[in-house]
Every structure is written in structure tokens, then in C-alpha cells.
User: Fold these one by one.
Assistant:
Number 1:
Amino acid sequence: MASNPRADASRPQPVAARFARSQFLNDAFQRRLAHWNRVRLSPSLPGPDWAERLDDDHVMLRLEGAFLEELRAHVACAAAAVPTDPDGFIAWFEGLLDRGPGQGDALFPWIANEATRDQIRWFLEQEAAGEAGFDDLVAMTQVKLPTQAKLELARNYWDEMGRGNVKGMHGPMLNGLVATLDLEPTIETTVWESLALANGMTAMASSRRYAWHSIGALGVIELTAPGRSACTADGLRRIGLSERERRYFSLHAVLDVKHSEDWNREAIRPLVEEDPRRATAMAEGALIRLRCGERCFARYRATLWG
Ligand SMILES: [Fe+2]
Ligand SMILES: [Fe+2]
């Protein structure tokens, strides 16, 4: 690895140094974090090296925390200005659909109307490798939540699970599209911006100190996914995929509109009513997610458009 993000990752740095060159927003660190996430979240068996692996985990958890704190620092000013009363917060949150970072990116009309089959394949390979698994993120986030929010996350998770029907499960549905298009999503061939998005989402969902951030980040995915999904479904139809083959995207173009309304009403609102400090944390989480997406779209355009 070229740089050593381990050196003083969790210590505060002068502002100029922090923004001059990030220790975390680069290939080497994001690949390392992606590999660690893959291993640590995989079901496994106890081995004789369990104590050494905990030592490694501790180093990586510190680095992951410092990465998240850098992402927070980028959005903290904007989030501090967001209303913390329930009505004001929900209005601001819903407004992210039009005004949020990365919204209205020119990439998506291009995917719908112009991109070739190979360009769409490259785009989806990046997206698939960066996919952290919405179902697991929801499951990790819901631990010990207050009842009303917990129930909403449970309903959302049940939809992710196809309501108990394997053919309706969202994860396998995406895997089916990956197979149809003969994609090979791997960490090595994925741009760091896409890995950073998945790593950031995983960091928020798996650390309880970022639980409210995760609620905001997952909620803003539900809010903004329908527009991007509809464009992607249109592009897939244009290059000849059947309704069944493009179902992952045509489904999310519609279902996530309802998911978003339910999430805002049943999870976000009551949580903010209970403690207005959570509004600022959710605002940070939502903005972190959107800024990560914005970086992805810019990188995809730079690669696809030259
Ligand atoms: Fe889904
Ligand atoms: Fe959804």
C-alpha cells in the first residue's frame, strides 16, 4: 500500500492537511476496508487465531471510525443548519429529492437513452460490487431501536426478503441480473468511489454510535432510488432485456416510493419527536450517503465519457 492510513488516523489534523490529501478517499484504503468487511461479516467458524483476528479487527475499526469521521466533517456544517423539529426536519429531508448532492446527475438520462450495452454492463458491474446489501444494512441498523421504528425496519426487511418467497428476494434478483449480463463484480475491478459508498454504509449500519446516521442514510436511499432505478430499467429495456430480467430496477422504481413514505412517517418522524439530536445525526447520514453517490456518478461519467 502506498500510503499508511494507520499512522495517525484517529488524531485530529489541521484543516488544510485534512482536505489537501485524504488518507481514506483512495484506492488502497477502500480496497483494504472492502476486503476486511467481506471477511468480518461472513459467517465463519471459530479458529485457533481468533484472538489475533480481534487485534486486526481493532486496528480496522479505528481506521473505519476515522474514515467515517472524515465523511462527517465534510457534511457537518450543512447538517448543523437543518431544522430539528419533526415537521421542519421531514420537510428538509424530503427536499433532498430535488436539492440533494448528486440529484439530477446527467449520468442517468444518458444510461436510459444513449449508453451502449457494454457501457451499461460496466456501470452495473461497479454498482453491483459496491452494493452493501440493503437487507443486511437494515437488519444491522434495527438492533434495539424503539418499537415503532423497529417495526418499520422489519416491514422493509420483509419486502427485501420477498415476503418469504425466494423469487421475490431483492438480493438474488440483483444476482440474477448480474448473471444475465455476464458481469463479474470484484473488489479489484471496482473504482474506490463505489467501494467507499458501500464501506460508508456498512460502517454506519454496523456501529451503534452511527445508528441514527444509518437511519438517515438508508432513508435517503429509499427517497432517491426510484428515479435512478427507472432510468436504469429504461436503459436495460432499450438494450433488449425482458421485464423479468430487468425486474430488480423496475421494481425499485415503484416500491421505493412507498418505502420512502413509510420510512419517513414510521421511523424518522417518531425518532426525531423523541430526541431532536437524532435529526442532526440523520441529516449527516443522509448527506454522507448522497455525497458518496455524487462522487460515484462523477467517476462513472469521467470513465464512460472520457
Ligand atoms: Fe430492495
Ligand atoms: Fe426499498
Number 2:
Amino acid sequence: MRRRILLYFMSVILLIVILFQAIFTFAIYHYYYGNIEETIRQHAQTSRSFFDQYHPLYTFDLKEYSSEIIHSFQMPGTNLLLLNSRGEVVQSSSGLAVEKKVNIPTFLKEGGTLKDIVYSPLGEKVMTFYQPLFHQDQVIGYLCYETSLTDIDKMILRFTIITLVLNLIIASAAFILSWRLSNSFLKPIQHIISISSKMAKGQFQNRIETKSPDELGHLALTLNYMADEIQENERLKNEFISSISHELRTPLTGIKGWAETLKDPDYLSKDEIAQGMGIISSETDRLIHLVEDLLDFSRLQANRITLFKHTFDLNELLEEIVFHWKIKAQEKQISLTYSGDCAVFWGDENRLKQVFLNIIDNAVKYTGTKGEVKVSLQKFKKAVSVKICDNGQGISEEHIPHISKTFYQADIKHNGAGIGLAIAYNIVALHGGKIDVNSEEGIGTEVVVILPFLEA
Ligand SMILES: Nc1ncnc2c1ncn2[C@@H]1O[C@H](COP(=O)(O)OP(=O)(O)OP(=O)(O)O)[C@@H](O)[C@H]1O
Ligand SMILES: [Mg+2]
């Protein structure tokens, strides 16, 4: 991965550097060469205009006036050759006799100008510029300016070397930067890989350390969250197994004890036999209830619960539940009261009964003797709200967000498997409603079930 990041970054940077170097060299070459050409061209054109203006002073014989022409039209930094119409050198500004004949191209004969770059016999690079001279619309000779390009080439080379060195420095800096950048990517990724492989092996106590707010930080937080959830589920599963074993053992011990006793009924009074049978029956009910809860829970997990909806009076249902539960509440001297008006509702009556039974069961279970449990129903335009308030032990703040989770028990001292509320939340959600729990430790709990009126 590091190699790929480096390769990618370096290819991009080298491409930019090479492109910049090429454009810069090309631009500087054109700037200097263009400048020289332009200066000579302007001088040559001025010379030609001057010659045009004053040519009546001259005869056709170039040779005779060659010195004057050279003297008037020469340009500093260049060597001026005066050529006749056949291209033979008549005179040069250097004063040296030049035995040279230039092949004049046709367009030059027709009055055009020519710039050329040639190499002198000594191997020197030279720019030449030809300017025809006219007399009565006839080309009678040519001015040929020659200038050496050696110094300019040296200067261009110097600039090119400077920019090349600068570019190499930039490329090295880019290499170091991309190395550090790839490290800053890779180090957290390697850390995530090492911790997540430990998690894959079941070592969930490790957490990924992250402070970066980017996608990697997000990934690390998600993996940490996943580990938290797996650990929490593991804890709940273990708690569930232990509480379920306890829940099963208690009634089974009662049943077994009384079954053993009843084996020999001759020594028992009628009342004792009746009491034993009663305990066996109620403990069996408890077991059936527990198994039903577990079955319901597994159906809910698999989304296999179907609601059988019909129209019924929620008020009547609550009255009935409270009436039956009163006996159980009285055992703990808890006052269980209900208030509400007729509320015709369309839903699954049996499932909703299960919801309220679970919540009222909790209220009575987690409220001490002489406590109070108030159930009330309130009808609104679009929904009905059922409030179950108790002044029992309450739930501490850190447990409230979790009590709807399956097998979660805020208080493990009491009998229970931690399924009741999970089932209730699911059934209410299937009716399009919700359950809110407000509680304060030591003060009491308020559970509000909100059920929207559904269209039949
Ligand atoms: N009214 C309440 N007062 C105090 N704690 C409550 C109350 N209702 C629920 N809880 C807490 O929420 C937890 C979850 O409730 P839930 O009904 O799901 O489980 P449970 O009562 O322990 O077992 P189950 O209902 O399956 O027999 C309980 O263990 C209890 O700690
Ligand atoms: Mg419960």
C-alpha cells in the first residue's frame, strides 16, 4: 500500500515537474530568440525604409556605395553583410573580406524577409536575418545581419540548470512529504488491522485508540462500538443463562419437593395435599409462562409474530387486568388503582394485554410493601396513552436506556428473565406506537405507552 501511495504521488509530482521544466525551457528559449529576431527585424525594416527614402541618391552600383550602406545600417552586436542581387557578399561590417555566395530563396527575391539559424564554419550557432533592398521596385541587394547565439544559449542553459535544481529540490520535498503522508495513512490502518484481528479472535477487551475526526476515526469508533456491543451481548447472554437456570430451578424444586411428599399421601392431611397440589399447579403455570415468554421472544426475534387485530375497548381491557392483578398487589399491600374512559381501539387485544400485564407486573414487583401503583388511560385525537406509575425502587439513570434490551435486568435480586419489557416494546412497535420510561432511583417509575389509533 505504501509503495502504491508513493508511486502515485511521485508520478503525479514528477509529471508536473517535468511538464513545468519543459514549458519553462521552451518559453525562455522563445523569449530570448524572439527578442533578438524582433530587434534585428525592426532595425532591418527601418534601414529598408531609410534606403527607400534616399535611394535616388544612390546609383544601381551597390559596390560603389557599399561602405555608406554598411556604415548607415549596421547594428551593434551584429555583423552586417551587404549582398548583391545574386547573393554574393559585397562588403561586411567586420571589414573582413568574405568570400561567400548565398543561395537566395525565391520569396526573398520577391521582397520577403528571412530569419535563419545556421552554424558557422567554426561551429558557432548564428542567427541570420535577410532584408532585401529595392530600387524602382527591383531587388538590388540584401542586408544580412548575423549575430552569434552562443552567449544567449549559455544564459538559457544557466536558467535551465537553476530551474532543474529547483525542481529536483521540489521533487525531493514532495517525496519526503508523500512518505510522511503515506505513514500518516498507514499507521492508523495498521493499528486498526492489528486490533480488529484480535477482536476476530474473540479478544474484545482491546480498543482502537483514535483521535482523528476523519473516516478512519469513524471506522475505529464503529469497530470499538461493535466490540462494546458484542461484549454487552455476551454479558447479557451469560446473565440470561444464569437467570433462566435460576428461574427454572425454583419452580422445579417446588414441584419436585411436593411431588416427593405427595408420593406418600397417607401421612398427609387433606389440606396439605390441597396445598401441595396448588403449589405444583402454580409453579407449573410459572414455568409455562416463562416458556411462553421465551417462545414469544424467539418469534419476535425472527419477526414471526402476526397480529390478529380487531376492535375492542382498551378501557375495559385495562379494567380487567387491574382487577385481576389487585389480588397479587394486595399480598404486598400495594394499592393498585385505575382511571380511564372508554377508548375503542383497533389492534391485537391479546398481545396488548401481554404488554400491560408485563408493565403492571414490573410495577408491582419493583415496588415495596404499602406502595402505590396507578394505571390511567388518556384519549387524544390521534392516539391513546396509558400511564403506569409506581412509587417503587425506580431505575438508575445509567440503566434506563438499556431496559428495553432483551435479558437486560437493572436489578437482578428479583425474579425475572429480562424479557418482559423487550416483548412489550416490540408489540407496541408493531402497533405503530412507543413506550417511554421515566424513572428516578428511590422515587418511582412512570411507564407511558402511546398507541396511535389505526385505521381498521
Ligand atoms: N417499574 C419498575 N421499577 C423498577 N425497575 C423496573 C421497573 N420496570 C422495569 N424495571 C427494570 O427493568 C428491567 C427489565 O424489565 P423486564 O420486565 O424486561 O424484565 P424482568 O421484569 O426482570 O423479567 P421478566 O419481565 O422477563 O420476568 C428489570 O429487570 C428491572 O430492573
Ligand atoms: Mg418484567
